[in-house]
């Protein structure tokens, strides 16, 4: 007997809900102009906020990728210096830095020729310190077996947008550092 009552109350409340929804649909005449403007303003504010956050995220990702490539180039130059120190030949190690890549040349005693390794830049370009980019020219750095550099240089590294860093090669000490 108790279960029968519960079923009747459930069905009557469901019926009332259906009747109320149908009456709302029949009486619905749409949104007013003010309501429509409020909705459009809210959509505009939300999409504008997403665009600003998205742009900041892209700039941060570009900065991190540029910094990582600068550090990778610095580490490659340090490795080349260390390799020149460990090599017993008087040839040293040569690094040629082009605008879009760098090439590390190491002497191979068994084959009696230089072995080359190319690495291409993704987010940066290298140029001379004065800022000129020449696709035919390159910056040549030779690490001597003493660990020193044949000639001190400053290399300008450019990234996306206005990102710039200097790579400084000191001739006497062979020290390599990146500016901020």
UniProtKB/TrEMBL annotation:
Keywords: Membrane, Transmembrane, Transmembrane helix. The chain crosses the membrane at residues 33-54. InterPro entries: N_methyl_site, Pilin-like. Pfam families: N_methyl. This is Prepilin-type N-terminal cleavage/methylation domain-containing protein. The lineage of its organism: Bacteria, Bacillati, Bacillota, Clostridia, Eubacteriales.
